[in-house]
Automatic annotation (TrEMBL):
Protein encoded by which gene: LOC112045462
Keywords: Aminoacyl-tRNA synthetase, ATP-binding, Ligase, Mitochondrion, Nucleotide-binding, Protein biosynthesis, Transit peptide
Localisation: Mitochondrion matrix
Protein name per its UniProtKB record: phenylalanine--tRNA ligase
SUPFAM superfamilies referenced in this protein's UniProt entry, alphabetically: Anticodon-binding domain of PheRS (SSF54991), Class II aaRS and biotin synthetases (SSF55681)
Amino acid sequence: MKILLRTNRFYLTLLNKTYSTALKSVTTVQVNGKEYRADDYTNITPKITSYINRNLHLKKDNPLSLVRQRIVNYFYASFTHGGNPVFSVYDNLSPIVSTRQNFDDLLIPEDHPSRAKSDCYYINASVLLRAHMTAHQSELLRSGLDNFLMIGDVYRRDEIDSTHFPVFHQVDAVRLQRKEHLFVNHPDLNIFEPNYDPTNPHTFTNSISDPSKQSCHTLEATKLMEGQLKNHLIGMVKVLFGENIKYRWVDAYFPFTHPSWELEIYYENNWMEVLGCGIMRNEILANAGPTNSIAYAFGLGLERLAMALYKIPDIRLMWSTDDGFLSQFQDRDVNASIEYKPVSIYPHCTNDLSFWLPPTLTIDTFMSNDFYDLVRDIGGDVIEQVKLKDKFIHPKSKKHSLCYSIVYRHLERTLTQAEVNKVHEDIAAATVKAFNVAIR
């Protein structure tokens, strides 16, 4: 899939997110078969859009799909009403969302770093590829749902190494409780404090200054929801990692929940974060429709769980179509204990790229994520890792220099040094053109 930038006379293929002066006449960008207005925020690349609609979480023999199904099975079994699952599952939602969905509906401040162009893939200033599945939370609440799982691919600009990839997969969930369900044995208790009127929620200014609860909620409601949330998530982790898994809760901050926590498990002699969760901010519920409920929410990454469960060493393997990888997960019971065994270990090649920055940039203002995207676009999936190796300011000329170490490795065959050198030369040439640097 290509992104095509349309001018009045011709099409230009976008090679990287940094626009040269030649592209200033660009007015539209086409993503996933739809045309959008382009502007100064547009930084989406052809390499990134090539991952849209791959839906690894729905591919039967992919390890991400096995973990997804285990989580869905847990919630189906744990929450039933009249023999039917209480939770509904949405696993094919479009990854193209508005900034309102991704940020505003979730109370993310305008100056929050997660909104930065260096963090997100923007189609334009008001449309982007979702950075989290939580972006669909409010639309599903507005449709009248109260217990649901959202599963899909999310997109974030990030560093390049064996555990980071610009596309990964998340499971997010929401569970609402009304008074009659939450306090079924204590009808005298209430979700809301006496000074909060659920019929006029926008007349109340909700505060999160109390670390134990939101000002609109009673402590009893918050603690009961906290207990349910933690018990449900501990149960899920035990289903995945075994009854004897060690775990701990860590206080956290998220703009859309309060109070908030992260759940960590003790895995291979280290504490590993597996999810974030909390009591949903009441403003989100009130803006989306429900005014008489309290809710919890959580989100987790499928890649992190799959890599831990199946001992998969490199996140790029999730995208492999090689039979040697996929056959290890083919036709397996979702609860089977599987340990990935490398079919072959191919050697890596490492080349350094050093360059002088133009006078308009410094070692502190140059965005590494811009460079990472360029490297991905040119090198594709043979790029295993990119590290900032050195920063240097010339003592006399005061010119600023950066050196990046690029590790090349193919997952399915041995790369020749000649192949690597050609890709490296192409990356150097594209870097000069994109950032006006001088190769050292």
